User: What shape does this take?
Amino acid sequence: MQKYADYIKKIEIDSLWSGKKHIVWELSPRVNILSGTNGQGKSTILNKVVKGLSAGGEFPSHMLKGVRIEVVPEDARWIRYDMIRSLDSSLTQVLGDDETALRQVLPVIRGGGGSLLDYQLYHLQRKYLDYQVNIGNRIIACLQESKADEAQKLSQKKTRFQDMVDELFAETGKHIVRTENEIRFTQIGELLTPYQLSSGEKQMLIILLTVLVEDELPYVLFMDEPEVSLHMEWQKRLIDLILELNPNVQIILTTHSPAVIMNGWMDSVTDVADITS
Assistant: This one.
C-alpha cells in the first residue's frame, strides 16, 4: 500500500545553479511563502522539487540529483501535490505537435483564448465531475445508514466553493450555475463557459478548483507567483480561501506581492537569502 506524506518538513538543494547556492529550507506544515528579488532562485527552488515529484508523486527515487526532501511521516514514499504556475502560454506551446490532444481539447474550449489556463480548466472540469460523483456516492451511503448530519456536511464544501466564486466574481455580475455538474456561469442572462472568463478569473478559479477536488486530503500545493492577474483584494484573501477549502493542505508559494501576506501571514515569509549558503 502506498504511504503518503502529510507535508514536506525540509527542502535541501546542493546547488541551485552552476555549482552555487546551497539551499536548506525548513518548512511549516501549513503556509510557506518564499520572497526575494528577481534572479535569486525562488522559482528554481520550486521547479527543482516539483520536477523530482513528477512521476506521480513518488520519491526519493525520482528526485533530481542534489535535491532532497524530508517529509512527515518519515517513512512515507509518496506525496500528493499540485503545481500552479502564473505565467500563461498558448495551447500549441503546451501540447506541441500532439494533434490528438489538440483535437480533443480545442472544440471544448472554443470561445476562450486557447491557452495554458484553458487547458488547466479543461482537466479540472473532469476532476470536478469525478469529485462530485465521489461525494454523491458517500452522501447516499450516509443516508442509507441514517446519518443525515454527515451527509449534509459532505455537501458543504462544494456549496462553500460555489459561494466563494460568486463572492469573488460579484463585481462583474457573474454567478456560478448551481444546477449543472460542469462549471458554467451566468452574466446578465448570458450563459458563459469558464474559458470565456478573464485571465484573473480563470487563475482564481483554477486555484480554488484545484484545492476543492483534493477532497480535504493532506497534500502540497506549490504556487509560483499566483498573484499575477489577481487584483489586490483577491491576493489578500488567497491563502485564507485555500485553507478554508482544505485545512490539510500545505502551501508552498513564491511571491512579490505584499498583499498576499496582509491577512496575518507575515510570519510565514522566508527570504531566499535566509536559506542560502
Remarks:
- The CA atoms of residues 80 and 219 lie 5 Å apart.
